[in-house]
Amino acid sequence: PAGGPLGRTPAVAAGPDEDDGPRQIRRGPGGAARPVAAPKTTHKPGPQKERGRLTVVTALNADEVRERSIASFRRRTQRLKGHASNEPKEKLIREVVIPEAITIQELANRMAERAVDVIRMLMKQGAMHKITDVIDADTAQLIAEELGHTVKRVAASDVEEGLFDQVDDSTDTETRSPVVTVMGHVDHGKTSLLDALRHANVVSGEAGGITQHIGAYQVVSPESGKKITFIDTPGHAAFTAMRARGAKVTDIVVLVVAADDGVMPQTVEAINHAKAARVPIIVAINKIDKPDAKPERVRTELLQHEVQVESFGGDVVDVEVSAKNKTNLDKLLEMIALQADILDLKTNSERPAEGTVIEAKLDRGRGPVATVLVQRGTLRVGDIIVAGAEMGRVRALISDQGETVQEAGPSVPVEVLGFNGPPEAGDRLAVVENEARARQVTSYRAHQKRENAAASISGMRGSLEQMMSQLKTAGRKEFPLIIKADVQGSLEAILGSLEKLGTDEVAARILHAGVGGISESDVTLAEGFNAAIIGFSVRANKEAAAAAKRNGIEIRYYNIIYDLVDDVKKAMSGLLAPTLRETMLGNAAILEIFNISKVGKVAGCRVTDGTVERGANVRLIRDNVVVHEGKLSTLKRFKDEVKEVQSGQECGMAFENYHDMRAGDVIECYRVETIQRSL
């Protein structure tokens, strides 16, 4: 290209793709222009420099503004607040509710303190604890007061306050149906009578025609149209348990007595139960259709047990009925309704429900199922309930007809589904306001149940120890037995024979004797006393046999009384203390004592009479006083270990765990024989 006017190449302006920075042109001696590098830009000190080392990334991002993170902003705000308020925070003083027992964690939560601080205070008192440990109320109160809190002591039983027996306003009450319990002797027609009243065949559904479970049913009286609730009991154990728990379930007892059989043992039991519960009795003289029926004899026999019917000048109503022919059933219902009117049964149906568990079971398909008799209020689906140590929410209510209902009022029996576990028969049921209250009540009851069980075990242990000490003092041991026979005559013969076996040292203790098969209740009784069960010409039912196998209870069957007595005699002989008989073997005199390094002291002896045997019992006699009794562990003649040494020979002896032997001591060697005694 052509040069400029002076022969030099003119400077070319920088294009858009070249550096925009200032550039100087310096001419060299040859007149050629060359670019000079721009001076280094000096950056002002900024955040990048403050952070330290300059890297490529930091250099490229030097001009970008760095934003502060939210977490950093929060930390800065908290720091500023902390610097601003240097004054210590004021401690919160709380009123701490302390029950009879409380965990360390729960106590710390109620005080709003750290559990580690509570544990530290306990360590100062010399106790090591974990946060899950339970401490008593006194210790908890001491800790709370030391930390500056006020304390309110409460009893654990306070959680049950207001559950039962609240007084209803008389204006809110209404008449309820009577609850009638049918009781009587076996096979006198209790369930058949109820079957006739219900117009349903209940007996055929029971195993062998015997009631297996408690049934609760409602019957409508044809005359008045009023409902009557009947409870059919298989026996009297459940009734007794309910009465023992304070649950007055029944209003009227219908005592069923067979006209052809008269008053029997279980009839008397039923009378006693009714009197103990203080409920009126209506006597139903059943089976009057039989040719050998004698109703007047029944009325006379009842007089012996202080049950005086109206025809004999008393106040007890009696009705002659026939469950088979449905005779006078309407009259019986009329008498029950009349008795209920006299009792004037009233309750409030608009309050939370209360009731009693009649029976409970664990159903495979439905879970825990409880038959409940509602006594006050109305039980509804969805209610939160507690019964004994179990709680739950009512999932379904099933009537005695098998129908699903939404609610059940007073005197109505229903099956309740929804419990966490099956409660016990006789437990009282109550509706509570929420699950927290239900958990408090059930946890308290479960705790009480465990404590009572432990107390009963320790009490039993104490009573057994007392009994054993008394037996030792009296020199007499007892052999517990349960006897079941086919007839009363055989039973009396067995009891008479066993009574003759008794001595001053040992005797048979008959826990229970009765006529009939071996039942599950017999096994339960045997388990409690570790007794044997003897069946004479009878057998255990399936449930009893299974329970006996499960609990390790021995059941023996006999058909001959002599075999039974001989076996019991042998077993009782085992309780007799054996006789110990000593047999003298020989004597030896200690001549000299030798100290042997690996053996210890060895007595050099001469056998004066009889024989000395290794392993026999020995007495060491010094100055006519026995100073040691033990066993002969070593017997040597010269250097050989021998089994025995005869009279006149010398030997070496050593005793087990005894070395204080002296020259001149006399050794008696003898054998102890145990002789088993027999009655």
Automatic annotation (TrEMBL):
<dbReference type="GO" id="GO:0005525">
    <property type="term" value="F:GTP binding"/>
</dbReference>
<comment type="similarity">
    <text>Belongs to the TRAFAC class translation factor GTPase superfamily. Classic translation factor GTPase family. IF-2 subfamily.</text>
</comment>
<dbReference type="InterPro" id="IPR023115">
    <property type="entry name" value="TIF_IF2_dom3"/>
</dbReference>
<dbReference type="Pfam" id="PF04760">
    <property type="entry name" value="IF2_N"/>
</dbReference>
<dbReference type="InterPro" id="IPR053905">
    <property type="entry name" value="EF-G-like_DII"/>
</dbReference>
<dbReference type="GO" id="GO:0003924">
    <property type="term" value="F:GTPase activity"/>
</dbReference>
<keyword id="KW-0396">Initiation factor</keyword>
<dbReference type="InterPro" id="IPR000795">
    <property type="entry name" value="T_Tr_GTP-bd_dom"/>
</dbReference>
<dbReference type="InterPro" id="IPR044145">
    <property type="entry name" value="IF2_II"/>
</dbReference>
<dbReference type="Pfam" id="PF03144">
    <property type="entry name" value="GTP_EFTU_D2"/>
</dbReference>
<dbReference type="InterPro" id="IPR004161">
    <property type="entry name" value="EFTu-like_2"/>
</dbReference>
<comment type="function">
    <text>One of the essential components for the initiation of protein synthesis. Protects formylmethionyl-tRNA from spontaneous hydrolysis and promotes its binding to the 30S ribosomal subunits. Also involved in the hydrolysis of GTP during the formation of the 70S ribosomal complex.</text>
</comment>
<dbReference type="InterPro" id="IPR006847">
    <property type="entry name" value="IF2_N"/>
</dbReference>
<dbReference type="Pfam" id="PF22042">
    <property type="entry name" value="EF-G_D2"/>
</dbReference>
<dbReference type="GO" id="GO:0005829">
    <property type="term" value="C:cytosol"/>
</dbReference>
<feature type="region of interest" description="Disordered">
    <location>
        <begin position="1"/>
        <end position="52"/>
    </location>
</feature>
<keyword id="KW-0342">GTP-binding</keyword>
<dbReference type="InterPro" id="IPR005225">
    <property type="entry name" value="Small_GTP-bd"/>
</dbReference>
<dbReference type="InterPro" id="IPR009000">
    <property type="entry name" value="Transl_B-barrel_sf"/>
</dbReference>
<keyword id="KW-0648">Protein biosynthesis</keyword>
<dbReference type="Pfam" id="PF11987">
    <property type="entry name" value="IF-2"/>
</dbReference>
<dbReference type="Pfam" id="PF00009">
    <property type="entry name" value="GTP_EFTU"/>
</dbReference>
<dbReference type="InterPro" id="IPR015760">
    <property type="entry name" value="TIF_IF2"/>
</dbReference>
<feature type="domain" description="Tr-type G">
    <location>
        <begin position="175"/>
        <end position="344"/>
    </location>
</feature>
<dbReference type="InterPro" id="IPR027417">
    <property type="entry name" value="P-loop_NTPase"/>
</dbReference>
<dbReference type="InterPro" id="IPR036925">
    <property type="entry name" value="TIF_IF2_dom3_sf"/>
</dbReference>
<keyword id="KW-0963">Cytoplasm</keyword>
<dbReference type="GO" id="GO:0003743">
    <property type="term" value="F:translation initiation factor activity"/>
</dbReference>
<keyword id="KW-0547">Nucleotide-binding</keyword>
<protein>
    <recommendedName>
        <fullName>Translation initiation factor IF-2</fullName>
    </recommendedName>
</protein>
<dbReference type="InterPro" id="IPR000178">
    <property type="entry name" value="TF_IF2_bacterial-like"/>
</dbReference>
